[in-house]
Amino acid sequence: MKKGIVLFLSMALVMLLMTPFALAGGGFDLFGYNYQARLFVGKADGVDRNLDGAVWGDPYYANDHLVMKWSKGWDDARFHGAPWGPDAWEDNEWNGMVPGGSGETWHYKIKWVGPCGKDGTPLSDGGYCIWGQFEVVMSHGTMNGEYLWEVLVSPSGYGAHEK
Q: I need a surface site. Which of 46, 105, 144, 160 has the fewest CB within 10 A?
């Protein structure tokens, strides 16, 4: 009985000590974003900040697990009005091998390169244009049980091809 009380009091003390950190802001929001850490972790459904069983209106990938990471350069330009530059990049890791998921997995590395054309336009280093001014420098995954290397720019590092 004493062990149970000591255990309960210990757990209560830990919770009491952790409360200020939880209330201090930061951490993940209900959608899966942690803007202080420049990170998203959660169901893809939350990436559009609308928990409606769809990702930008399409339910196919909504249950996939998504991890996104982005650089300070990306964060500054996307959320704080700074100019886009070569230090802006993001990394997306999709895992649809979860209950109710798409069954696909994908890993993308994307960086800012400046105006590059329409989505899918091949670029001279082997990547392709997306969103008009970004390059996919790495893309690989599985679809229908087949492993695919879609793009691998060499070198594929984020700062390797600064303009």
A: 144
Is the separation of the CB atoms in 90 and 112 below 8 Å?
no
Nearest-angstrom CA–CA distance, 108 and 102: 17
Count the helices and strands in the chain (H runs, E runs): 2, 8
* Nearest Cα residue to 66 out of 26, 38, 107, 109: 107
d(CA 127, CA 152) in angstroms, rounded, equals 7
Indicate the pTM of the whole model: 0.78
The two structure tokens encoding residue 106: 């994908």
- Is the peptide bond preceding residue 122 cis, with omega within 30 degrees of 0? no
Q: Is pLDDT at 26 greater than 80 in this prediction? A: no
DSSP E strands, 17-160: 33-34, 39-43, 65-70, 89-95, 105-112, 128-130, 134-143, 146-152
Q: How much is the CA Rg of the chain, to the nearest whole Å? A: 20
Q: What is the distance between the alpha carbons of residues 1 and 142, in angstroms, rounded to a whole number?
A: 53
What pLDDT does 25 receive?
A: 57
